[in-house]
Specification:
It is built from 3 helices and 2 strands. The protein is of the alpha+beta class. Helix 1 runs antiparallel to helix 2 and helix 1 runs parallel beside helix 3.
Length: 111
């Protein structure tokens, strides 16, 4: 198993609390509070994003002859499994943020 595949598997496991939170809300079933704790959900999402960015993003710094920074090159790899985990992370995070906004938004009445 390659390193990027291991990171994708770890990222998938870290996505489970967020997935369970959203599924439990949509399907109206109860899950243990420890599994849907905010630290587990958001920490898992952010950690999954970080560890799946490692095999994809390559940053290269180019220096001029006098030692000054001349250019920064960022390359995005095409490891499909890591990109899929990142896309799922983005969808789960967007769903949670949309729910937070809708649940807490109260329109003001202008008089």
């Amino acid at each position: 198993m390659k390193n990027s595949d291991r990171l994708a598997l770890i990222g998938f496991v870290l996505l489970l609390p967020a997935s369970i939170l959203i599924c439990s809300g949509l399907l109206e079933f109860n899950v243990p509070g420890l599994l849907v704790h905010p630290v587990a959900v958001m920490g898992g999402l952010l950690t999954a994003v970080l560890i799946n960015l490692l095999p994809i993003i390559r940053v290269q710094l180019e220096h001029a002859q006098n030692g000054a920074l001349a250019a920064v090159t960022v390359r995005i790899g095409t490891k499909a499994i890591n990109l899929a985990i990142l896309a799922i992370c983005a969808l789960l995070l967007a769903t949670i943020m949309a729910y937070l906004f809708i649940e807490n938004f109260q329109p003001r009445l202008i008089q």
